[in-house]
Amino acid sequence: MGIEAFELAYDRKGIVPSILHFGVGNFHRAHQEYYTNMLLADSDQKNWGICGAMILEKDADIFRGLRRQEGLYGLTVFGRSGHDEYHQIGSLVELLWGIEDAAAIIDKVANQCTKIISLTITEGGYNLDKKTREFDFSNEDILYDLEFPEKPRTVFGYIAAGLRKRMEANVGSLTILSCDNLPHNGDVCHYSFFSFFEKADMRLYNWAKDNISFPNSMVDRITPATLADDIPKLYARNGHIDLVPVYCEDFVQWVIEDDFLAGRPAWERVGVEFTKDVSKYESMKLGFVNSTHQMLSFPGFFAGYRKVDEAVGDERITTYLRQFMDLDVTPYLSLPPNTDPEEYKMTFIERLRNKAVSDQLSRLCFDAVNKFPVYMIPTITAMLQANADMKRIAFLLATYRLYLRRGEDERGVSYKIDDPGLVENDKMIIKSDKPLDFLGLSCFSSILFGSSKSFVECYLKYCHSIETKGVLATMDGLIRE
């Protein structure tokens, strides 16, 4: 089938960047920029362009590529039915890199035209201790920002410095909008920033109470990393030369609590849903999407698969995932109105099978020690309270342990263990030959696995079975029980 192309429907010269976004990664460019790009075609929405703020050394390549293209880039959307689309995205009308000019980002925060500061800084970007969930003031970059506020390193330091200037100039309120994939992201964002403000500047802390809102939001769109080999493939598909292309699936969702102090774009015109309370949407997405991704990650990877669609093409894995969603998630969810859970689950399996998107299992495995508390604990806690059958959770933890200990999958292929959130004590625990010691990993600190005798028995059984029979053979027995 062919590809449908959508060129810019507006003149970028007239767009005012009233949104400052930290974290111009692929997901942001396939999600928030996608929605905003469509909206800017409306003549009364020209004041809602986006300025991208990048503050890390590793942002250099993406910054330079985007700057060479004046912020323009292409988004290729691969449909489950084979209908693909190419969108030229022009909503990113300004670019700033903190390593090159930190003052420019601080001034943009302070600028009266800035009405919204949005964020995609990942789960770990909110700087919370994995055990206590308190703001981590031992972080060296945080300590640096507290001592040298005019030369910040972190998003907290940049925004605090800009807000201080904004407060002194009396140019008005704004909204900080988290677009990260974690529950109650606005509440988490509020807690982290106010923890930093309180330590950095009490005048700023008190001013922020009345002048900043932090709405919760729920985001969803599978957006793989664009690898070097992907760029010529995308060019062959869409016919556009691009230094920094992005590709994604056709499914997209964004639900936001409508709490904006300085106005907002009319995103509802292009499919964004506004609500008073996003919690049911968050719970549904965390349960059916994020935790199911986690259930797939290590079993699929250690079995020797490297792409999501390939793994889900194995009917044993699909059955295992459906059993998890049906038996371990659905009974404990309170769904949003007018939601058909069966349709939602079926659609998600179809999304995983989208060969054109073909997400990397390594991306699902990455930084699991930070993902587990966010994605898995709500489901695990509900199951423990209900004294439910937790054999699939036990199987997942057994495969996670093996992944961290081996460095070689069951087909004999070596891999790099990519879990940067592991602390030194975690690494000592992983080396232990006693499987129960693994349940003391930092990401499990708030879970009383020992309270369920059946869980412990299943976990020990699967640790032994995976070692002796392999992941897929053990999974085959699990789904037949």
Can you describe what's shown?
With 481 residues, the protein is an alpha/beta fold. It has two domains: 3-273, NAD(P)-binding Rossmann-like Domain (Rossmann fold, 3-Layer(aba) Sandwich), CATH 3.40.50.720; 279-480, N-(1-d-carboxylethyl)-l-norvaline Dehydrogenase, domain 2, CATH 1.10.1040. The protein has 20 helices and 13 strands. The strands form three sheets. It has a six-stranded parallel beta sheet with strand order 6-3-2-7-8-9, with helices on both faces. It is globular, with a radius of gyration of 23 Å. The two termini are 43 Å apart. 46% of the residues are buried. The mean pLDDT is 95.
Strands of the widest sheet, in order across it, are 6-3-2-7-8-9
Query: What is the overall number of helices?
Result: 20
The gyration radius over C-alpha positions equals: 23 Å
Number of domain units? 2
**What's the CATH H-level superfamily name of the largest domain?**
NAD(P)-binding Rossmann-like Domain
Strand content: 5-15%
CATH architecture of the largest domain: 3-Layer(aba) Sandwich
Calculate the mean pLDDT score and round it. 95
What distance lies between the first and last C-alpha atoms, to the nearest angstrom?
A: 43 Å
- Describe the global form: globular
Structural class: alpha/beta
* CATH topology descriptor of the largest domain: Rossmann fold
Task: Give the C-level CATH assignment of the largest domain.
Answer: Alpha Beta
Total strand segments: 13
* Low-confidence parts: none
The major sheet is characterized as: 6 strands, parallel
Helix proportion range: 40-55%
